[in-house]
Amino acid sequence: xxxxxxxxxxxxxxxxxxxxxxxxxxxxxxxxxxxxxxxxxxxxxxxxxxxxxxxxxxxxxxxxxxxxxxxxxxxxxxxxxxxxxxxxxxxxxxxxxxxxxxxxxxxxxxxxxxxxxxxxxxxx
Length: 124
What we know:
Number of helices: 4
Shape: elongated
Strand content: 15-25%
Distance between the termini: 65 Å
Helix content: 25-40%
Structural class: alpha/beta
Strand order of the largest sheet: 1-2-3-4
Order of helices and strands: HEHEHEHE
Low-confidence stretches: 4-12
């Protein structure tokens, strides 16, 4: 019985596979086509791009960054919103988020998930 259980344990460890992808977090100034092409050529398949930065508001480059990521062959492109609860430009948060979503929609920005990072920035 012990030998059978040991064999099953080792087989299950050997057979299991890992589901993992290489991904990158990019801010709004790092978005050239050459950068994205290099990342894809080196096995990266997932990107998460900063769309909003504390009180600095929406990245003026988000639409182009996302488009460049897709064009280079990224399989998944998400965006993230860094909001500081103390910055005037983020209050009320519902207005800031609505403004961002409307802007992304008007520019036909295609993204997967919109992630939120809520923490105090140094500019407040």
